[in-house]
Design goal:
- By secondary structure, this protein is mainly α.
- Strands 1-2 form a two-stranded antiparallel ribbon.
- The longest helix has 34 residues.
- The N and C termini lie far apart (51 Å).
Amino acid sequence: MLSFIGFLPAIIAYRIASGSSPSDAFLRVYIPVLLCLPDYYRVITPGVPDPTFNQGCALAIFIVAMSRGGFKGYRFSHLDIVVFIYSVLVFNSEYQASGYSDAQNLMFAMLFSVLTPYIMAKSYIEPAGMRFEFAKKVVISLAIVSFIDLYESRFGANVWQLLLGRFFPGQGEGWIVTFRFGMARTAGPFGHALLAGVIFMVGFRLQRWLHFSGAWPDKVKQFKWLPVKFPVFMSLVLFGGFFITFAKGSWLAGFLAALIVAAGATKQKLFAFLTVLVFLVAVGIPALTAFLAYASVGRANAKDDNQETACYRYELIQLYIDIAKEKELTGWGLTKWPKVATAPSIDNHYLLLFLMHGKLAFYCFLYVLIGTMVRLLVYGISQPQPPSRGGSLAFTLAGIYLGYMIAIATVYMGAQTIPMLFMLSGWSESILKLKAKDYPPSGDIVPVSTPPLFNFRRVV
């Protein structure tokens, strides 16, 4: 019964959605709950799926939205089909492997950690002119997490587990604090430092976009004592939170994401991107060759922990690719795949997705990642320069997609990284569908007008 405290955010979301609007609840409740409360705690509800904090909020908003005729601002596009097929394939693989009783939580996750966040972001952010408000809510939430994470970094104890663990006995105990360079790697409410690194990579890039766009005032009354301008302060806070995860893969991902934004800020954008592409090929091929030589020596011959980690990830592909091919169409399911005793943890989401859910789900996922990134780049290149240098939302989002692509090659994509990716996908798709332009936060361009769903006249 203690776990029923997990319904409290859902109740608040329902009241705000009913009293104000579902989009208001999405912004004021769902985003902070997603980013500030763990995803590994569930409300135990016998006989029905067990929701997490953020899934309960998504369900509450979904109920109110549907009772009011659907998601205002939603317009169909082809990516909706891809995301839907991906969700069905993921659920089906577990259903085929374990039956409905075991698969119901995964079905619930596909509905309220994939489809509903995707639809909410697509329906509310751009159509309601909430792009700056959404990004600010993400950044503020992660700034709060950054400050709380200082305790974990200093004392090696996770604050969320200390405060909430008593309400969810037996849950989340597998998420332990890890160390690197003799220091605790902060996981915050995200389970593991590697997952926290992915989320902070997203938050930092959004903060830099807000900074470039002039969305923050230079001085804020409550922080007038700051020795630096408020936008700089927020960037430093997010960077600090990002840094103390010590997630090297996400650090690299964030750096390459910044290259995308920098190239998009030039006057000759196409030339800049071709230059970046040539640079990545020229550097990437020798780097890949060197990495393979570095990682293929085997863990027994590794000279330090870093090389041992690289060797382990290299061996994963050799050990599991043939197992994945045995059920390459539908996959083995979430938990039924044969584990190799020497490699129980698969720190590569592409391999894990292929293994668990098959190649069809794998291809759908790749299209969401790569297809959306490429379309954002093409759209961004075709647009005029934004009002402020570096303030292109299309290039910021494309950089985040590139960051995701790199980061999840070193970690499985779990917890809050899943709804975050699909929210970004819904947001990106609405930008592309509505051909939304860059505009300053003080500009007159706010809600994006959308055509009616039907062309026939309605006569009262």
